[in-house]
Please model this.
Amino acid sequence: MKNLKELIYAPLSGEIKQLSDVPDPTFAEKMMGDGLAIEPSDGKVVAPFDGKIVQIFPTKHAVGLESTNGVEVLIHIGLETVSLDGEGFEAHVKQGDQVKAGDPLVTFDLEYIREKAKSTITPIIITNGDALSSLEKTNENVVVGGKSTLFTAMVQGKAEENSKKSGYEKDAIDIVEAVGGKENINVFTHCVTRLRFALADQDKVDKDALEDLDIVKGSFLSSGQFQVVIGQGTVDKVYAAMVKETGLEEGSKDDVKAASAQKQNPLQRGIKTLADIFIPILPAIVTAGLLLGINNILVNAGIFYEDQSIIEAHPEWSGIASMINIIANTAFTFLPALIGWAAVKRFGGNPLLGIVLGLIMVHPDLLNAWAYGDALKEGTIPTWNLFGFEIEKIGYQGQVLPVLFASWVLAKIELFLKRKVIDSLQLLIVAPIALLVTGFLTFIFIGPVMFAIGNAITDGLVMMFDSFPIIGGLVYGAIYAPLVITGMHHTFLAVDIQLIGSTGTTFLWPILALSNIAQGAAVFAIWVAAKNDKLKGLSLTSGISAWLGITEPAMFGVNLRYKYPFVAAVIGSSIAGAFITMQGVTAESIGIGGVPGFLSIDSSIAAFFIGMGIVIVIPFLVTYLIAIRKINK
Model:
């Protein structure tokens, strides 16, 4: 039958992003379908075409629509917004409503979502792409909701209506069997696109059988939850069939979260806590690292001129370099304030008090932590005299452990006082007492003890890598990618920051950057060797993502599936790690952990480029030579 042209307008205003830029594998790997994402500039979502509301989730964070010509679209407002329970959202439609293009669907508090959710980036997905003969995406960088054309689709003429109105019962039974049976499911629920399971034993999951099911678009493990991607409008039917056919009780997302958390051991919970603290401040640190890299190019000799820097050869650039340096150094100078905000928020306290605590610890009246060593040698460390007790009057610039523990204490004191003090007096009592007590404890006990522990850790790492550089680089290069699988790599972000704060540089972060490049090189080899279009598309997008510092799509989507690309990448990063550590490669900041990482290198940059060559060539060649014999069979 004749194809029908469908214009699909942008459902909200903002900046266009590719799906590969979305930090969620469900969307980045197009498990739900093709589309685009928008970084919203306001909080208004409108209908992208004339049609009907197929589904609006109870938490109002996602809307599914079907156009009059049969195009199905999912609008997912932000990432991990299901956990907000509808707070910050207001729905203006309900399931079954007919809408016209431009009609308001949902309004949301953009600043609230930005603060509380993982991201505000909003994927717009065509969920029935197989019904289209073509899909043309906009070339614009910025769109206006209800006015800008986002997609132009050609809809295939409707043949017979799909007879699969029933049959979800069989799908439900097959999914339950693939995840290990009823007895392996502690609790399960669903969101707008996925089934979410808390499983007794995740090793019992038969992922091959699961992903062979036509109804399943992908699966992955995240935060202790095993998630099966089904699709909007279908997942609720599969979920209902699963409850009916298996007799399992319906669960809420909180039930699944609680069950998943119970399966985590103390180490896993500690790692998750560190991740929850450091991931929110990572954009500020990475931005600072990139800017410091630009400053390095301007002020370091031997890059463009044999014995001069750019600002020495062109003094008119010195002001620009100085300004960039101030902008870049601010995040590191006031790092305790950033950590204080994230940590107190994570521990349940008022994050504003965390910012104040961090600023207290870097107050200009205190001895700068970077000047502590010289002051100690000279015997000029300033002190307070508290009733005859001498307290060192030092700051904690660039330190991690002191502000982490102080933030925990602050949050606990604040929460205790809130339970004990009546509401009318809380403003006058809770914050002043919490800050005062925590401040005294920090300068008297927490700060000195944690400062000493942090320096001992730093000194131990430096001594080990100085004494056995080839072993240190070989081992860290080999274990970093496996650490990403477990989530333990987040702990080393704190170690890198501590190293930079104590010594001014880190020798670990350059190995991280090379490990990410190695994973990208391996997946690029799969892209070259594969003949399957779906695998080639996934490999290309995830390889680019890995070279820009995000390796999860490459590792979980391709390399770990075939195993040998992952092993080849680990071999390459291990060899390169040993080489650059022997050459004394260090970074003075944390930047983008991929190809742009060279901007953060402050010494032996030529050796770092050789290391990049190692992690590109070895993983690519090893993977390609194996893949051409195995992957297309």
